Amino acid sequence: MPRLRTTAVAVAVTSMLAGCAGSGDDAAPASPASTAPPLVKAPAASSQPLDADAHVPRPRQIDERDASAVALAWAELSYGYDTAYDAHPHVARLRAARYLTPEKAAMARSYSPASGPGAQWSVWASHRAWTQAHAALADPDEEAEPDTGTRAYRVVSVDGTAHGRDGWKGQGPRLHAYLTLTRTTKDTPWRVSETDIAEAVTPPSNRP
């Protein structure tokens, strides 16, 4: 996948969401050094089943033969959390697996986070907050490869907001997602086959 980059992206030194940075959302973290204590596996399941009070995005009707529509729908589901129900950010990735290729979806379902959800998640959880992911297409670099009938590249900026059940409101997920989408024929739905996530320390420039 070509490295599509926009000048507005500032990559955070520490990823806000465990297991999301690097070459893909679901790539396993590097093995700890022999002198480090073993990492405790974080739960990769909802703390409780979703019900009417759960504030997570529901899959919406889109034209799945439109690569941009699929990329945006994937981002909205992937970064729409509800800490009152979700034990870890990876739970939202599983909700977005419907937009992944079968191979990528299998990787997501078999992946078990090797660290906790992180400090930002703890802030959200202290307010029993949910996040709303505002996703928008960002411009790729001039070197980006053009779309073909079965492969497309999209850059999606996410500028999220967190809403606490106690009335608190704060920063939600902020990142750029560099996505490769593929399909078998021109008449089949697009699916996300590769992801490259760059967490942002400042709001993405392409706001919805």
Rounded radius of gyration (Å): 17 Å
First-residue to last-residue Cα separation: 26 Å
Mean pLDDT over the full residue set = 80
**Content of β-strand:** 15-25%
Task: Report the count of strand segments.
Answer: 5
State the major sheet.
5 strands, antiparallel
Oligomer: single chain
Describe this structure in words.
This protein is of the alpha+beta class and 208 residues long. It is 17% helix and 21% strand. It is built from four helices and five strands; from the N terminus they run ααααβββββ. Strands 1, 2, 3, 4 and 5 form a five-stranded antiparallel β-sheet that branches. The longest helix is centred in the middle third of the chain and has 12 residues, at 67-78. It is globular, with a radius of gyration of 17 Å. The two termini are 26 Å apart. 38% of the residues are buried. Residues 1-46 and 202-208 have low confidence and may be disordered.
Question: In a few lines, what is going on in this structure?
Answer:
The protein is of the alpha+beta class and 208 residues long. The chain is built from four helices and five strands; from the N terminus they run ααααβββββ.
